[in-house]
Amino acid sequence: SDLVADVNSLEIDAETRQANARLIAAAPDLLAALEHMVDILLGGDPIEQSEPWCQEICATARAAIAKARGE
């Protein structure tokens, strides 16, 4: 299923609906922060960029960004 968060279902308790609504409301800011993080990591020290941890973080972040954009 492509459903990410249900904020209206009566089958979900009020606390979960509120948490889902907060996540949806924060999503644009979270996306912008993740995009900024990738820009900073890739705009920094070229030696650091070649480190496996940096490549892994950027690949994971890019996948999340693409998912958020529906790509």
- Give the overall shape: elongated
Taking the alpha carbons of the first and last residues, their distance comes to: 16 Å
What is Rg? 16 Å
User: Roughly how much helix do the residues carry, as a percent range?
Assistant: over 70%
What's the tally of helices?
Answer: 3
Low-pLDDT ranges: none
Summarize model confidence as the mean pLDDT: 87
DSSP summary, beta strand count: 0
Q: Structural class, from secondary structure content?
A: mainly alpha
Major sheet: size, sense and barrel closure? none
The H-and-E topology, N to C, reads as HHH
**What fraction strand?**
under 5%
How would you portray this structure in words?
- This protein is 70% helix and 0% strand.
- It has 71 residues and is mainly alpha-helical.
- Helix 1 (14-42) packs across helix 3.
- The longest helix has 29 residues, at 14-42.
- The radius of gyration is 16 Å and the shape is elongated.
Show the helix and strand layout.
Blueprint: H1 14-42, H2 46-49, H3 52-68
